[in-house]
Amino acid sequence: MDLSARVAIVTGSGQGIGREIALTLAEHGAGVVISDINATTANEVAAEIVARNGKSMAITADVTVQEEVASLVDQTVSSLGQIDILVNNAGIARDTLLVRMSSTDWDQVLATNLKGAFLCTQAVVRHMIRQRWGRIINIASVVGLIGNSGQANYAAAKAGLIGLTKTTAREVAARGVTANAIAPGFIDTEMTRKLSDNAKQEFLRQVPLGYVGLPKDVADAVAFLASEEARYITGHVLNVDGGMVMT
Ligand code: NAP
């Protein structure tokens, strides 16, 4: 998969799955904008790519703020000349049972995981339509497909993200732009290290392959969907979950 003519933005790529996606796209030759709310980690990842002879720059942006998203896309296009691949990866969880969930926890999770993806998609899509080529890849979750106790806000946001993916795919298909979602299962990152041992065991019991996935497992799927080879795939949800959800 040759991405050397491509420029990508990966949101929330200062750490975890987003970082691995950025490193992997850069390995395939793409110029990658490391975008995160955290300037320190974003700069570190961009420096890591450059140290490996890749093309990268860091741009700090909060995906929930429309002006910051607009500036992220403007800076990308003015510095790197184009935008071909958007990976909506930035996400947070604020887990608690529905009866105890505050409206603030609901709003924050919906704002980051769903509204953020909408704002970023809207900001890049006109560039992609104009150049008749684009790849939008949304990092959802199997929880958006099957639900999960304690994650009403997160599951609703990820289910919404799948709806956004399919609608985007239909609206831009005629212009050479595809939109797909990846639904990771249980992946070893800071987000899942915070879970109790019991919760981890419970997740693992549901994984036929019997082990926790790595950020690289998600990143390789993103690289494929971003490539020319995936040109005939759009509106799809690709589960990267060790067989946890078979639909
Ligand atoms: P993570 O380690 O917490 O990384 C998320 C990154 O996004 C962090 O660098 C975070 O910055 C950044 N971020 C948070 N809010 C942001 C905002 N408003 N604007 C821009 N960046 C923001 O999470 P992860 O485990 O790598 O997860 C990445 C994605 O995969 C998320 O969408 C998550 O829902 C999804 N996912 C993860 C798993 C899993 O098992 N880990 C499973 C399914 C889906 P700060 O930390 O500095 O705030």
Order of helices and strands: EHEHEHEHEHHEHHHE
Spatial extent as radius of gyration: 17 Å
Largest sheet: 7 strands, parallel
- How many helices? The count is 9
| Secondary-structure content class | alpha/beta
Overall pLDDT level? 97
* Helix amount: 40-55%
- Span of the ends, CA to CA: 27 Å
Label the CATH architecture: 3-Layer(aba) Sandwich
Question: What is the class in the CATH system?
Answer: Alpha Beta
How would you sum up this structure, described in words?
- The chain is of the alpha/beta class.
- It has a single domain (7-237), classed as NAD(P)-binding Rossmann-like Domain (Rossmann fold, 3-Layer(aba) Sandwich), CATH 3.40.50.
- The protein is built from nine helices and seven strands; from the N terminus they run βαβαβαβαβααβαααβ.
- It has helices spanning 16-27, 39-51, 66-80, 103-131, 143-146, 152-172, 190-193, 197-205, 215-226, and strands spanning 7-11, 31-36, 55-60, 85-88, 134-139, 177-184, 237-240.
- Helix 3 packs parallel to helix 4 (103-131) and helix 4 (103-131) packs parallel to helix 6 (152-172).
- It starts with 6 loop residues before the first strand and ends in a 7-residue tail after the last strand.
- The mean pLDDT is 97.
- The structure holds NADP nicotinamide-adenine-dinucleotide phosphate.
- Residues 11-12, 14-18, 36-38, 41, 62-64, 89-92, 112, 116, 139, 141, 184, 186-187, 189-192 line the site of NADP nicotinamide-adenine-dinucleotide phosphate.
